[in-house]
TrEMBL record, chain A:
Keyword Cell membrane in record: yes
Gene Ontology biological process terms in this record: transmembrane transport
Protein name: ABC transporter permease
Source organism (scientific name): Ruicaihuangia caeni
Membrane topology according to the record: Multi-pass membrane protein
Phylogenetic classification of the source organism: Bacteria, Bacillati, Actinomycetota, Actinomycetes, Micrococcales
Family note: Belongs to the binding-protein-dependent transport system permease family. CysTW subfamily.
SUPFAM superfamilies: MetI-like
InterPro entries in the cross-refs: MetI-like, MetI-like_sf
GO cellular component: plasma membrane
Short name of any one Pfam family annotated for the protein: BPD_transp_1
ABC transmembrane type-1 domain mapped to chain residues: 70-276
Keywords, alphabetical: Cell membrane, Membrane, Transmembrane, Transmembrane helix, Transport
From TrEMBL, chain B:
Organism: Ruicaihuangia caeni
PANTHER family the record matches: SPERMIDINE/PUTRESCINE-BINDING PERIPLASMIC PROTEIN (PTHR30222), SPERMIDINE_PUTRESCINE-BINDING PERIPLASMIC PROTEIN (PTHR30222:SF17)
Gene3D superfamilies per record: Periplasmic binding protein-like II
Keywords assigned: Signal
Record Pfam families: SBP_bac_8
Transmembrane segments: none
The protein's name: Spermidine/putrescine ABC transporter substrate-binding protein
The keyword Signal belongs to this UniProt entry's keyword annotation: yes
Length: 286, 393
């Protein structure tokens, strides 16, 4: 009798423990997602009202009309992710292995910008990259920019903004995975006559791959859907898919098209992420 | 959060000294995200309290910093209103962009439960949309003794020709702002703005459909209050060709304030009220109503259908049509003041502002200002799509 109840309890316990999570997912993930997908299959106009007609043509319209914006968003996000990786990896490496007792202070400094509003940080870049600013001045002095060229309102400034804004999300996971590495493994590599570089390439780097993978996802996904950087630092030729959604939803009041773009973006990102994860797993790179 | 909000405003005043429209733009780019919600606006969806207290407290939905505001956030005119009438007004700075605000109130209005605000102050065309959707109440003129102070130029706007539903809150005149340090000269025509090679890459236009296409149509001799498809198409083509020639650097909300004062932009379309403030900090910044005329937008005072307290709403609207009160607001906001007698009242607050034609334009200058025609939702959607395409969207 008692053992039966215990067994029963044991059987139900995991589900009960999961219940809050399931409720949360249903309420805040699944139901908005279903609403979004349903909305993307509607037809009609704002004036007459939108009705669900299983309008698959919305997707045809979205893909044929807006593929250049999808492409641009993916490209900008990919470049920003690579830039963030190139900056964040050495940064995290230095913090973990070279900063000694300053380690946690430096880590706080990496995260510190997140305490200011996203918009303020982005607007600050209009000052940093201003025509009369330091960066443009320096680039003009060394001849990389002509006197009639500038950075603001170009793809460069949008990608710089994306890289900067999402950098902490790359640095933190890499920090964690580097910090977890057992130092004795690196010492062992040295004992086996590996050079410093070789030890890094064969031991440290492979062991930090999970951090790189997590950071890549955390930067690429929000960057692909971002529209603030393109709006404040960009121009007509740098509009990203997020800006199109904003325009279609709020300004043109075309809710089905805006929803269809959103769903397409979600599917596209999931597809790209799944593809890259699969590649990363099968490739025995190092 | 509030401390960050305050710091942000300080930052911006460092950039350009502009507050009101800039905050609006900031929140507009947030695109409904909650990033800013905690900083600049109070939470929405505050239900008006029931029972006896509902008669002494109302909500006024408006733009951030669109009313006289002291550094600590108190609003002197509303304090005075409460002293006189016993009605406490919550100034709900929830309109950061008309479109965004509409997306927020639309389900409530359409569902019939109404919004908590008793007075709303969106831009005229959004007010017109409220009227056409039957979401606005007719004003009871017998309760608005001061409505007679409405300036003649504001008396029959296209969106509400007989002023049955609305009074003007503030006028926003669109013209050309110039940083003469960059251009070395004045820019007085749209023609120069769009084609002068000396300004190449140093020009920005506004992301707002009416402000930009209206100004361009005026330059082509068309009336934004009564234009046809060809007039509109011509304006879009003018934008396209200016963009392809490299004349236009970008389209802005009121972040042009930063671009202009930093010298990234030499000349741009801008709201007069903003530039009055920018020019205070930097005498090189000037504002011109284009020779061909400027577009005049207005924020309205309206009572939405189902407003919790129509009586108090009328008292509030009437209060702001007292010349002294209107002058007090105009001294802070610097927008075009629609209240007769406010100019005289301003003379005792700030004589310099009383002489400013951008706040108190005379009859001659008012002739150079045009309003944009009201459009139904379908036409609005079609024009907006065409315009957004020119913006690269």
């Amino acid at each position: 009798m008692t053992s039966a109840t215990t067994a029963g309890r044991r059987r139900w316990a995991p589900y009960l423990l999961l219940a809050p999570m399931v409720v949360w997912l249903l309420a805040f993930f699944l139901s908005p997602l279903v609403t979004l997908v349903m909305g993307s299959l509607q037809s009609g106009s704002f004036q007459e009202g939108f009705v669900f007609t299983f309008e698959v043509a919305n997707y045809v319209h979205v893909v044929t009309t807006y593929w250049p914006w999808f492409l641009r968003s993916v490209a900008f996000a990919a470049i920003a992710t690579v830039c963030a990786l190139l900056i964040a990896y050495p940064l995290a490496y230095m913090i973990v292995f070279k900063s000694g007792r300053w380690k946690y202070l430096l880590l706080v400094l990496v995260v510190a910008p997140l305490f200011a509003s996203f918009l303020v940080r982005t607007l600050a870049w209009t000052t940093i990259l201003a025509d009369q600013g330091v960066v443009v001045g320096a680039l003009r002095t060394v001849g990389l920019l002509g006197p009639d060229q500038w950075l603001l309102a170009t793809p460069v400034s949008v990608i710089a903004g994306l890289t900067y804004n999402f950098l902490p999300f790359m640095a933190l996971p890499i920090f964690v995975s580097l910090d977890r590495i057992d130092r004795r493994l690196i010492e062992a590599a040295g004992d086996l006559y590996a050079s410093g570089f070789r030890a890094f390439r064969r031991v440290t780097l492979p062991l930090s791959l999970p951090g790189i993978a997590a950071g890549t996802l955390l930067v690429f996904i929000p960057a692909a859907g971002d529209f603030v950087n393109a709006q404040l630092l960009g121009s007509v030729d740098t509009q990203m898919i997020g800006n199109v959604i904003d325009s279609q939803y709020l300004r043109a009041l075309d809710y089905p098209t805006a929803s269809a773009i959103s769903v397409t973006l979600i599917v596209l990102i999931i597809g790209l992420v799944a593809l890259s994860l699969r590649r990363a797993r099968t490739d025995e790179l190092f | 959060m509030s401390s960050f909000g305050a710091r942000r405003q300080l930052d911006l005043s460092g950039l350009g000294g502009m507050t009101r429209r800039q905050v609006m733009q900031l929140a507009a780019v947030a695109g409904g995200s909650l990033l800013l919600a905690g900083c600049t606006t109070k939470p929405t969806g505050v239900a008006p309290s029931n029972g006896s207290s509902s008669s002494d407290q109302i909500i006024w939905s408006n733009w951030p910093l669109s009313v006289d505001t002291e550094d600590d956030g108190t609003i002197p005119s509303l304090v005075e209103f409460e002293e006189r009438t016993g009605i406490r007004v919550e100034y709900l700075a929830e309109i950061n962009s008309n479109d965004e605000w509409f997306a927020k109130v639309q389900p409530l209005m359409q569902g019939g439960q109404g919004i908590p605000a008793s007075v709303i102050s969106p831009t005229d065309w959004m007010g017109g949309r409220f009227i056409s959707l039957d979401w606005a109440q007719k004003l009871d003129k017998s309760k608005l003794a001061n409505a007679k102070n409405l300036l003649p130029a504001f008396q029959s706007p296209a969106f509400d020709p007989t002023r049955d539903y609305s009074l003007a809150w503030q006028g926003w005149l669109v013209g050309i702002a110039v940083n003469t340090d960059v251009t070395g000269k004045d820019v007085r025509t749209v023609q120069e703005l769009l084609t002068d090679p000396a300004l190449k890459g140093k020009v920005s236009l506004l992301t707002e459909l009416r402000e930009t296409t209206g100004t361009l149509m005026l330059a082509n001799g068309a009336d934004p209050g009564a234009f046809n498809d060809d007039d509109f198409q011509q304006a879009i083509e003018d934008i396209e060709s200016a963009r392809q020639s490299g004349q236009l650097r970008r389209f802005t909300g009121n972040d042009y304030a930063a671009d202009l004062s930093q010298g990234n932009i030499g000349a741009c379309l801008a709201w007069a009220g903003d530039v009055v403030q920018l020019a205070k900090d930097n005498p090189a910044i000037k504002f011109f109503i284009p020779d061909s005329g400027g577009v005049l937008m207005e924020d309205v005072l309206m009572v939405p259908t189902g407003a919790p307290d129509t009586e108090a709403a009328h008292k509030l609207i009437d209060f702001y049509y007292e010349p002294e009160v209107a002058a007090q607001v105009a001294a802070y906001v610097n927008a075009v003041c629609p209240v007769a007698g406010a100019q005289d009242a301003m003379a005792s607050i700030d004589p310099e502002l009383a002489d400013n034609p951008l706040i108190f334009p005379d009859a001659e200058e008012m002739k150079k200002m045009f309003t944009y025609k009201p459009m139904d939702l379908d036409e609005n959607q079609a024009r907006q799509s065409a315009f957004d395409k020119a913006l690269g969207l």
